[in-house]
TrEMBL record, chain A:
<dbReference type="Pfam" id="PF01841">
    <property type="entry name" value="Transglut_core"/>
</dbReference>
<dbReference type="InterPro" id="IPR002931">
    <property type="entry name" value="Transglutaminase-like"/>
</dbReference>
<feature type="signal peptide">
    <location>
        <begin position="1"/>
        <end position="21"/>
    </location>
</feature>
<keyword id="KW-0732">Signal</keyword>
<feature type="domain" description="Transglutaminase-like">
    <location>
        <begin position="314"/>
        <end position="397"/>
    </location>
</feature>
<dbReference type="InterPro" id="IPR038765">
    <property type="entry name" value="Papain-like_cys_pep_sf"/>
</dbReference>
<protein>
    <recommendedName>
        <fullName>Transglutaminase-like domain-containing protein</fullName>
    </recommendedName>
</protein>
From TrEMBL, chain B:
<keyword id="KW-0808">Transferase</keyword>
<dbReference type="Pfam" id="PF12969">
    <property type="entry name" value="DUF3857"/>
</dbReference>
<dbReference type="GO" id="GO:0016746">
    <property type="term" value="F:acyltransferase activity"/>
</dbReference>
<keyword id="KW-0732">Signal</keyword>
<feature type="domain" description="DUF3857">
    <location>
        <begin position="56"/>
        <end position="213"/>
    </location>
</feature>
<keyword id="KW-0012">Acyltransferase</keyword>
<protein>
    <submittedName>
        <fullName>L-amino acid N-acyltransferase YncA</fullName>
    </submittedName>
</protein>
<dbReference type="InterPro" id="IPR038765">
    <property type="entry name" value="Papain-like_cys_pep_sf"/>
</dbReference>
<dbReference type="InterPro" id="IPR024618">
    <property type="entry name" value="DUF3857"/>
</dbReference>
Amino acid sequence: MIKKINLFLIALLFLKSEVSAQKTQKQLPVFKYGKVELNEFDVKPKGADSAAAAVKLFDIGNGYFEIGPSGSFIYVFERHARYKIINKNGYDLADQEVRLYRDGQGSEEKMEYINGATYNLNNGKIEVSKMASDAKFTNRLDNKHIVKKYTLPNIKEGSIIEYRYKTKSDFTFKLDDWYFQGGYPTNYSYFSLTIPEYYIYKIDAGGFYELNRLSPIENTQNMTMSNGATKSENYTVKTVKTQYYLENIPAIKDENYITTLDDYVSKIGFELTATNYPQSGYKALTSTWPKIVKEMMNSDNFGGFIQKKNPGKELIKEIIKDETTPEGKMNLVFNYVKNKIKWDDKYRLYTDAGSPKTILEKKSGSSSEINLLLLNLLDAAGLESYPVIISTRGNGTHPGYPLASKFNSVIVMTVTGDSKHLLDAVDKNNNPDLLSYANLNHRGLKINRTTNEGEWISIDSIPPSRSSIFYNLKLDTENKLTGTLSISSSNYDGVNRRNSYQQAANQEEFVKNYKRNKPGLEISDYVIENLNETEKPLIESMNVTIEDNIESAGNLSYFMPLLFERTKENPFSLEERNYPVDFAYPKEENYHLSLEFPEGYKPDQLPKNEKFKLPENGGSFTIMYTMNENKLSMVSKISLLKSAYSPDEYYTLKELFKNIVRKQAEQIVLKKI
Amino acid sequence: MILRNSLFAILFCCTATASTQEIYDVSRIPAPLLNKSTSVVRNEEHSLIIKNRTNATLIYKKAITILSKSGEDVAQMAEYYDNFSSVSNLKAVMYDAKGVKIRTYKSADFKDESITEGNMFDSYRIKKLTFLNTTFPYTIEYSYEKNYNGYISFPEWSPVDNYDSAIEKSVYTLQVPKTVAFRYLKSPALRTDSIQNNDRIVYEWTCQNLPAFEYEPMSAGIRDITPWVMVAPNDFEYDNSKGNVENWKNLGEWNYRLSNTPQTLPEHIKAKVQQLIASAKTDKEKIAILYQFLQSNTRYVSVQLGIGGFKPIAAEKVATVSYGDCKGLSNYMKTLLSEAGIQSTLVILGSGRPSLNTSYASFGQTNHMILCVPAAKDTTWLECTSQYTPMGYIGNDNSARTVVLITADGGKLVRTPVYKPEDNFQNRVTTVALAADRSADVHIKTSYGSSQYEDHLGMMLLEPVEQRKRIMKNLGIPNMEISSASFLQPDKTAPKIEEDIVLKSSQMINQGGDKLFVTLNLLNRRESVPAKVENRKTSFSVPYGFKDTDITTFTLPQGYKVEFIPQDISLESEFGKYTAKVTVKDNMIVYTRNQMMNSKKYAPEKYKDLVDFYKKIYLADKQKAILAKVN
């Protein structure tokens, strides 16, 4: 029963700083479906986007609520968008798709209607071509997802296209994000949400462009609830409408070394934080960390899963046997899980399975199933452990305030004596304190299961991943180099090389892959160490002969001392960068060459030793040459000590790489006497 | 009936004589099959039972041992179905290294998904299962049944479908009633066993103890050296259409019937056609005008449903909505040409696939439709789904192969045009003004033809910002800044792109001691040599023949003179020709390089000669001139 109750909405108190101070009522443009003005055909992309294939003329979204057949609120979403297609690369816009979800338990998203049309200018007259019913398709992707696809007729360069649709959804906890920015420049994007007084939403806005917000409008809405076939009741519900818009937003463009483009796009999202029904009063859903944590801990697919006593209680004896140290126990449990359970490539916060037993039997599971099984066993071993919930790199940065829906995976923290370890058992090549790359999103929320408190902690990898290459070579008079090569790879470099070794059909193929694009290199007596001792650096050693690398000209021989390992190009080519450069983890690249010359050869003036530094110990590049009788030693060392660099640091990073490219290309010239 | 029972008995017999535990014990795999393999097919039973003209059943069973992580990608089961077929009776089991059953999969573990890759709509769906295990080796076994209710073609049996995978045993059995006519085509060395039995014939093909094949660089594929069988019905009934595909003539006849319905155009399109061609003098001009009309007024949208996978949508419909798939657009173009009084013929082919087998007709070999406008001397071929390619250019995937013309007299096999190395040119003229501070101003002018035009088309269509990023990546000139870049197709009817790039590099020359080193082949170096292969098994080929010409002129920096230039080089082999020449005049160095490669399929034993040839080119391409200070 819904009664008229006067209530001040508090949703707006949660507005984030990204949303600019509210504007006094501004006259916003109004667009009518089917009413295209002649001057819209003159629209051209501007500025940095002047070569864009299309322009989004406007995109209007309106969200509001109705009472559904079951008597609870449903979310209604209406969208109306119009594009001007400039050239053929924009034709893809004529194909639209809308994904609809159903949970299999009766709740679903439904498409109410969709209309679309193409407008072409022909001798000063607008010709309309409507989307016909045979251009609408429904595809059942799997048992939870349906895709509705639509295609528009008569698309030409210069066409204007338009579509509008309406969906209804039983899911009101997390509303779909509204994107103000996209792959094409947007002239105007607007979103409004009208919330009944009983719902309170939290707002998550992101992106570089500050959203404009209008003063909220209080109003009333008549809602109908049908009671059976003939009867229905009408209610008047107080509502508040908030409106956001942006004008002239450039297209968003991808760059290297970022978490996900989604972190930088201008958008807004809403998550239900509380309900306030007259009969049940104010009911907070996820407004505080203790609230969120409590709910997770009460869930059968999180807290319930961790707390299952069986089979962990018995199994743990088998795993830890007579090990007594906490560190030793932790390693045994971690190794047991990572070697027994195969990851199914899915990141999840909650488990699908109801208990660790299922996962142990299935021998495979999601990130949540694997790491919560790990936690379950660490509990059984009596080790102080915490779930740490995270948002992976691909899922984007968590805004920081209590927002449950932004997490998509979980790892574990275990305390052994004075030290704390982060554990992630989805990959056999992972170690304590070495998480999967995808998880390196800088921080996670550590959950205290006793107090239900959440605490943000850094999950950055501290020691740099180090790759060190040592050549010990002898030059003969035929310009051939003979000697040894050894490679040591730690942390993520170790993980990457272990992965490629394991993915190669056999050692021979791995060596062949290593030789690829290293013309002149021949390898024999290849030995690999610590392949399975993942806590140690991976060591590879081999004998090598190298031909075709030293060139001759008259009585001169010359070569670049970084034989195959030179940084040939600057990875940062753009003048400016708006996004941070996020390498995910700190790293070090070491290169050593020791080269003995034959009798009668002498280097002709060595390149200068130089060192370049990033400010604030952010990293450095060193290159050094020393001669000792007939032996040349050369060291090149690149250190990037931060996992991420801010856009302000971009210029110095770019300069550092410019110097790396320049210095590593310098030649050593030998004179035959 | 009797026969089917006996076959079943054989199957049961196999499973009864040894317990499964013994069967899948990894230690039972013959040693040669473990050599260089990452998985071993322990047993595959592919049995197709054709019941009558419309119904057939495939009973399929496969067991594979996954030896290592790199074999994981074959640890899955996938079968397609559509409105005319169904997949049922799915079973799957996992065994450990000893052959002990460790997991039985439930029907809920199998996924049922739609596949619409690149299509607006496609009725194909897939049932699939991915097997996951952390320890190697392990064995998976799965089985299912696929029922056809109306068929047009059957899946091919080719047991070696992966590199690094050995076959212990794979058997294909085919049961056909004597009343059902069919054809099969098999790999030459494969033996066919058959038994006649009252009303039906049973065929059997077997592949046993076949070691794994390794991937070989530039390989033309393992089809020439592995067993396979294709089976196709002579008569079929599919989505209420009856047909005969005994030969290409009949297949073409059926196709002709599907498309040869009255094709009308709306009056305004008819008027438009007449208006467009009014001043055109020749048929060629008319074709060009109408092809351009097609390109600027239609786009590719693919909807595949039942017979719609073979029958073009009506020209009138395409005229109304301005989109269609390859069949719809080809047929629309045909109708436009017909309005202009020009006759043309639909063509079906295997785009990006091998040439059609002239003596074995089947739908399985085809996947595309284009249009042929015959002329006594100058036949025009039109790819109607492309928004950009010039009239008559059908691209690498469609050229130089056997295709079928769909005529009133049935299918006719013909060859599409071949693009010769001279057609696939890259002509480049570069000037480099070197400065004493090691920087340089560079101007690059290049034109690309045919296949190389096709390779650069995507670049031309990119936004300028993306183009610049791509140029930096492709050119590999260190520390460069682009001042201008343009890509143009000067003639709408010729497959040719002109590229013009002006750039500055702060580090064009490498220093060594007090000398400067200039890599003469600035932009078109062969950077690597294909890996040597011992005992190569497969033939090889280059993707297409081409001819590259580079002329690079360097102006020396002030205060420097040429101290050394490399000698001229001339190489020739059956793979192609290569010359590089350097001349010095005043303060300029002119470097001229020509490379021409033939497109042919070469026998495996020739591979080492190709490696030699490429190595010589690699060495020639990196030669440098040395500059010294003028004293």
